[in-house]
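TICKET #2291
ISSUE: user wants both folds in one file
ATTACHMENT 1:
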Amino acid sequence: AEFKPPAGLHPPVCYNATSAQFEKGGVMALAWGTKGCLECKGAWKRCSIVADATKDDKRCTTFKLAWANDGATHITWSKAPNQCVDMFGGPHPGLWRCHKNSGNQQFYEKPSAVWLGAKQLCVHSGRGKICLNPVGVPRRFFDTPIDSSLLKPAFVDLVTGKDQLFLRKSYALQVCRAKLESGVPDDFWLWLSKQDFKLTQALFATFPVHPGQVKIFHDIREAVGHTNFDSSGMASFAVALAYVNRMKSSIDEAVQMPHPRFEMNNAGYLRHEKEKIKQEMIDGQHCGIQSNECRNLHKCCGKPEGWNFTWPRDPSPSVREWVQYWVKSVEDHPESLWMNPLKHVPWIYAVYVWPSPIEECEWVHSKLIEGETMEGRWYLYDSSFHKRICAGGKHHPDSLPGIAVYGGVCGRMAQLEWRKTGCMGMPATMKGEPGHCAGYKYKSSTALFTNLNIITDVSRLSTLKVVPEKHRYVTVEFAKGDKAFPNVRTGCLECKAWRPCKVLPASSEKCSYFTVDTEKGRLRAMSGNQCIDMFGGPKPGLWGCGGGSNANQDFTQDKNGHMVIKSGRGKLRFRTFDVPPKPDVDECLACKHRWRSCERASPNSKDCTHFILEKTGRFKAPKLGQCLDINSGPKPGLWRCSDRSPKSFVTKGGYRRLKTWRGQLTFESFAVAADKSEGGRCLVCSRSWRECDYSEAGSKDCTVFQYDPKTKLIAVGWGNQCFDQRRGLKPGLWKCNPSSKNMIANMDEKGRLMVKSDRGTLHLHVPNNGTLPNVTTKWQYSGIHEISCTKKNCNFFSLMGLDSKSMFGSRHKEVALAALESYNDYEHHGIYPTAHDEARLAASMAFALHKEGSASKEELGPVLAWALRRNPALYEAWELAADFPAGGPLNASGMPSRDALASREWYKKLSLLRIDATDARSQAAADKFAREHLVKQDRWVQFPQLHRDLVGRLCGALSDTVLKELGEVSDECVLVRHLAAGHGWDEAEAAMRETDAVGTGNLPSEAFQMHWEAMARLAVAPDQHKQAERLKNATENLLGYLTAGYINRRSQTFFAEHKRVLLRSPYAHVLQLAAVVLPEQRRLEILESTKKMLEQPGERPDSLWSSTEGLIESFLAWLGGHGNLSTNIVEESSVVDELNGKSAADSPNTAVYGQLELDRDAEVELGAVFWHETMSEEDSERRYDAKKLLMSLLRLHGPGAGSPEAAQEDEGLSAAAAAAGAKGSALPQAGGHRVAEAPTFSELLQMCMDDLLE
């Protein structure tokens, strides 16, 4: 169009950077990026931020720059030179005592992330990264408030149901912003316009698009080469890598790690910086160790000139090198990698493909792909691994081969696993647990995903009834020689095989039964081919019936009809008495145990055993996996099925008969009726190596199986476990084995899966007569070294927040699980998560405009509601929705039901529980929202923590009536409200006392944790809720009651080394409460009493607790027998897993897990902290010293002990900042003056959008 600028026009903002922005000794005010200038009002405090500051603003504090020889500078306060700018926790800048070796105070000159050629001063430590620049540096277009008027036509389209037009206009704005800011040439936009639009949706999924993301994406394509880029199908991978590295100014900078501070030594240097990093290590930097005992190489191993290991570590790759490495790796190992990240991983997961030094990834490939001999082990636990390091080796301690060779504890072992996984192309990252470092992987499976059921095939099943034999049974009475029989029957014989018989009274129930074989002249026992035999004496007994004549068994009849046995042993005479026939009782066989005789049960009862009549005539009990046999008696019983098992035959009466040398048994069979209820159940296979259970179809515990048509295995997706046909045709799990006939499943003629082996045949149905689905690809979560989580502590650093201006956010594990659902369960095309990307665009748009205050909540509500409809698994959108007023976007029509989400529990931080009361209008809105969305429990069965979170956010506004209607989901809210009102304090204390003695190892129980968190929530502002006195009393009472020391099987060596026992974690939590609510003098008293309990446990045995019975007594007995332990003993535990680690499905053995759990018990004595907060060198110095540990928990350390950790500071623009940057305000040109004829940013954007939408 006429007078419109070309699409690639840059905005009219320039900045001339001088070559010497930061001169030694220079005095200047400093700004924290685009947030504003630092205003530091006092020593030992956080600085505040002046958002609308100008270059000569008097509110901005001035600082002096003190450069050191190593290139670092300390920024001193102009009012007090002993106070330096320090990175507090959050991170956030503050003032603290200057310390030349503090990694939180050493600033280095780095290229500006904003203006090409400019510099900024950056500090980077375990707490994060802060960059400062001179005040007056102009804002980029990207950093200016968004002109929402450009989006209002799109909002109108959305409200009127024109979804696609809304998306078209939104993407046009995204593209135009990138064209104006990224500096990418026009030929790139021409190429992008010809690609599948799904790529554009992925690249511009976050609003406002960061110009660095588009620039890095473009530069990756240039580095690889256009043809190679397109042919390798790596666009999605490039989107992920560009997104993670969007803050970089060049692809020649070191690649960004998916974690803000897990590089233990911040040693992500490039190849040309090796000598610099080496000198820094000599000076004491980059020398930390993730050890429970020793956390600095200088302290552990002496001076660098004496180190016997390779140092420094191999350099990190630049973004360019990392991309080129993967292009080559895919070419070299197309079939051997665990995953091809270039073309098989959706970008939302590819952001977690962890980079490692190229040399280290090549080492991983040499072991896992090329099969070279492994030095070290993939899972080598060693609590004293620092000794192995100091002993020397050819690898750097932090390197992947270094961890394998020297070993480590949880942090090193988990890091080796997720970075090894990254080197093999699979996404994986770190996850923290209470006192433990774990992680997780994203794995994909192409399979048939379904619930399964087993419906009993009754067509061949029958129950059996024993038909009484029509024998003439007799009891026997004997006389020696010619002795006369009494006139009446007085006795009988009880005979057992191969033994003399006993004489019993005729009325005894133990009388043996015999049959009279008149043909052969024998008295035969009922079973065992035994006959009455004349033993020496003479006396009667049982012996094996002889085949020929046998004078000791053959009888003749005398004139009285008596049976006479006469031989060289003497003469015995016998007379018989008929046994009345047994009545025909209506009963069935109940064979309850293998290898045992069967019992009898009422017909048609659940105890009746089901048998299959095989073609051979054998009766097989499939549930027990054995066949019907004849035991002594003869009695029916079960025995191993074999060729020798008795085969039944049909009698003249139509019955089935078994006949062996033990006798014969005749059976009548009855058909088994089908159990119609079986069709509505599902298999639940939740335990490795165990038999499966059943549950109601549709339940959340129904196992989702994944059948692979290639391997024919039915896997469960975790632990390398597959469906296994167990003995007795029972379903179970066992280690996946493609050659096992008990696992191989094929399709039968009815479309069912069928497992057929020597154990029988199992038909696997889809519950409720469903049909098997088609084969699809799904992504799954696979834990790394996981032990246990609590409600508030199961977090990882997510890269997928809605704020394009911020990199990381600590999030609960469920955010990762929800990310799986956002792809698996909603629209996607190949590896592009279409529904996720479109929903993310809308949600991030609502986030950005809501944060800046540039659009009203009424305007943004429909946008957010649409995002939740488009993809209900977009977790960040739910969190944003909870920040809107009750009755906001979640009341929009057509909202999805929450039961569409299948994530597990996740937990929010304490501050999200809002308990402040509101006015009547807000209460009415909150109650209406809760009744419409939160009261129906069935909608939240599979998403319980979001349910709790939303209730918590509305807690202060909800009425008591609605809280009752909500049920147990409101327990935390009700508890805090009651305590805040002064009620239930005695009950809360009692609950915490009772739950002190439960929990996993040294962890607090969930009930204790909930009550502690309720008190802690009030302790944040005790005066506000008028409960300060009750908090003090409760804290004192708990300290007087709870156990303080924890005993486990390491306690002897722990005590010998550290001269104390472990602190009980619940007690540590209460000490943290005391730090807030009790005066300093009282805390000093508590410190001394607690220290005594830990160091002299024999004097207060009642203060000890153990989860293992008898362990306290044995520890105290050991302690009493060892007197004064002056010898320096060090706990050294080492466990090697020789077998696992070569497969993506592997995990450590149980022995390794046992050691990790013991480490966890020790780490949780630090109380309510996250794992990554315990890894600094300063923490290690006070980690095992009882006094320093208690001082830290009780907050008794004063200024100068190290700058404090603190709450996360808001990283984005505040509403005040947005208001300060009013739309249409003057824009600086090269000389700082407004050029009147230049169009505004908004005008340029509108021109560009008009071009694209024409």
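ATTACHMENT 2:
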Amino acid sequence: MVKRKPYGAEGGHSGKKQKTSHVHEPPTSEDVYTGRQLRQLLAFEQDLQKARHGLQSFKNLLDSIVNGEDKSSEKLQIILEFLESVKPRETEDEVPMYLPDIMETWSMATQLNNENVMSAVPVVLALLLKVISGNVDLVSYGLGICRTLLQRRQQELLAKNLSADNGKDFIISPTLRLLKEAVCLDGGALAAPIFRARNYTFKSLARNMGLRYLGEGIEDPKRPSVRTNAIRYLLSSLKLLHVEAKRDLLSQKDIVAALMRHIRKDPPSLIYEILKTLKASVILDKKLPKEIKIRILNAHSLIRIAELYGYPEDPPEQEDDSEDKRPSVEESAHAFLIAACTDSDAGVRRSQQGCYPEGVDPNAIPLGVNDDKPVDFGIDSIPWMSKFENDVPVRNTLLAEFIQTLRPWSSTKQNELLVAIFETSPELIAHYFCHRKSFLFDPKLSATWIGYAALLYNVVQLPIPSWFGHAKAYARVPPPTSVVLGNIIPLPMTPKAILRCFSIKSKLASFYAIRLLTLALQKLGRVLEMHRQASFTSDSLWEEAARRLLDDFYQRIPDIKDAIKCYLAMDQDDLLQRQAASRLLLLYYEVIPQLALRARFDVSPILLSTIKKVEASEGTGEDVVMSLLELENLCAIAKYSPSMRWFARTSDIPHSPFTTLLRLSVEKTTGISNESLSNVLYWVASEHQLVENRPNSPGLYPLIAALRSLGGVDSAIWVFLDNCSERCARTPVKYLEMIEEQLEKANVSETEDIVTCPLMMTIAEQIPFFISPSPSKATLKAFVQLLSEYLGYSQVTGLSRPFLNASRELFAAGLKDQKIGSKLRIPDMPKPKVQEDAQNHGALVTNGLDNEANNGTDGDSAHQISPQDLEQRLAVPITASKDSSLLKWSSKTPEELVEEGHASSLIRLLSSEHSSIRREALTNITKMAARIKDSTYDNNEQAWLLLMELAETARSPITEGPLPSVIVTFACKALEVIMNPLHCVYEKVNLFLTSGPVWSLDRIPLMQTILQEGPTEDGAFYSEISWLLGFLLESLQTPADVALFHKRKVFERLFALTCNPFMGPNLRTQVLRIVYRATSIEGGSDTLITRFGAVSWLLAQRDAATDAVERGVCRALLARLWETCDQKRIEAWSKGGVKRLV
């Protein structure tokens, strides 16, 4: 016989419990036209099939509104009519329940394990809250619905849905969407209460974030997975929760781990949302403590986010404009990691000492036997100086672990990230390459090697931190040589690898090696300069460290002979390589001349061939620019080369190198900078005594200016000048003696400090040889004009007038023709024009042409603080009391009363000017205390005790006048403290509350305890001081408060507090704000001046300040003190002393 099937429809009972079916039958529905019809459809029914019918009809209505199908407001009006009809009546004894029929249906479905209805109710509620969020008029209904959800019965229903089995996404996802909408409603008005119920509302959140999409392809944005909904709920909470709640949420390790575990497999939109929210609400949230940020920004999380580099992402679909503008996943991850790893406020990056490893005291020097003088064993007396060749301990261990997982040679953005981390945490550079043993620089011409080279280039390019990472000034002991050297030239750059780059046929490898060595030499020059600066303020340790650094650097780079060999082997047409190599050779001579001068490098032929190549080139393209840069480098090298023959002529070029460069400078036939040529020409001329080598010598400027004034110079004149230069350089003594003879004839005393020019004597001697071949009239005319211009420019640039007169006579005698000689004169030149040309040319111009030195001005004049600026910096508005607080508090829950400031607003009414308001406020405080005590609020006992002690303290005084501001402010501040058990003064406040039932009105609570007793926890002293200063600032409001501060010597204690050298600038600013507040109160300035010596204290603070802005603030506050006091009384009291000081 066949067994009979049990009777009963969905939701009915049978004799035997049925197995839950996972088959989702499509629900029925109908169109809704009125709010009354909707209310009937949603009325509680025992038959869950009918209930599901009503819920589906409601869902269809909400969908049409959300999807924009409701062009008019008819359907929204139906919702409003329905919500108004089911709005509960507010009674004092009962908590109102919104949508009771839906809640009852949900409860019954949960009891009967009807999964369809368990899913349908959150779907409908989530859509309803979404509709309400878009309409301001409906927000009050939404808040009521959310508060209903926070009742214990509904919390259990939420927890039941959230903890459903893994495969029941259709139940979990709607519930998560519902909670997200509730958190976001009205700007997060109920985010805090929802989090307080986290045992229910956040149940199984970590598990749910692990239920990711397992299908093929990318997750459909319209049907998000459980993980997506869970993460969006979490992110919404992080955006809207206050700091303490956010701290508790991020402290849950399972949630943080679940958030990052599968982030690479999430859809792009979700990844972007995760990174954007974490950056805005965690990293950039300065109120969130660093120790909390580090819990989500740990090594595991950073590594997971770094895995998003190379995220496979399809081209964005052209759906809307927002998608087009959204950055890619890789760009978002890169921006996030940059902010997390380089911003010290993010908590990942810790303060460090740059080139000084962790555990090293850079100011500790071993002392002698008598402990009064350091041991003079040099740098070897520092025990840790040679300890860090194989490993470098660092403070940023988290970053050190993270960067080892990066692959900067395979990704440009990972390269940028690593370089950014190195720039903000220089201590990691040497540590990274010490541990990166697989990093090899041997050239293999692969993409990996190019990535290696690019990373090394960026690392070497980074600057050395100021003072080598020490705070404010150079330390007594230099940093370890191995660490500094690791920052200049990283370990992979071995001489063997660089030589292989030079010798390999690939131009790219040699170019990279040349550029890396160039950067390393430039960086070495800056480091040596820093050592020289430090040696001025310390002992010889820095000088010895610089010598040791040079010795070790020599062992890490190729010899200059190898660089010269590489340069000479380059093709003449390879202009980019030649320019880079010439720059490298120049740096060898400039930075490490001891090593460079070991090689005999004759730069003359290369310089001449480069000049020919530059003159033969046409146009202004990149090739010409490269040739010009190479020529500049070679000219500078020639200054250092001892084998350079400046005045030797060859068959290829008609003039010597010196005259050729002089012609280039005059004719400007090339684009080479005048400054570079002028420096070389002046150095050669002074070195070979063509001109006098003294500070006020104009050098070659008069000759160059005269040649330029001719426009075009005849070749015969260039040959003549070349011959004169060569003769003067060969026998300078002869022409110096001629100068002495001419000065003696002119009766010029030897003691007079006059400027002359040996080259001018050479020209005078050689003029007859220029005239003897009978040059053309045009050439002779130009030559005479050149001599006149030469004399004129020499006069205006400071050469001796008697010497110039004697030279003019010699010039005229050499010309032999009186008619031509009569045209020779010393013209007057305009001084401003000469001065401008001389400065552009790089020469020194004296004899009244130099700019007068600017009078020294006080550097603090740029930091004058106006009264408006002072008010903006130091003025803090007084919190006003609102009479409406007498009515608002009665409709709030105990949690809202304490945590949202309603209780504090009511307490402030005790200082009201009106006695009726004070009495009413006292009565309401007593009622509020009783209500809080009878509640289930976590801190109900402490809050009740505080409020009752305040009430007992204020009972008698409020009949006579307002309660002192100190008592009112302390009550408000203490109420904030008891909410947070981790607060620095939590223990002190509780001890104060239990010490007695009534507070003394003429004492300042906790001031004595904080200032004279030790902190409750180690390291919390300055946190307690900060709390006390904030309390005192808010307490100072009336003349009576000033009198109390005077009686209890508050200002005396505060002024003494600033003598602490370790007190931070923020705390000092708080003290200045209290002083500023006192000057704003009648009689406050007089009390500060006559009773506490505020004028002398401010002068001392000004003189002790190291910052110009801080000094300006002290001066401005001193002026305000004088402006706000009784000036006649103070002037008589101080006998005019205060006025003189101000």
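RESOLUTION: both attachments delivered.
EXTRA DETAIL ON ATTACHMENT 2: The chain has a mean pLDDT of 83.
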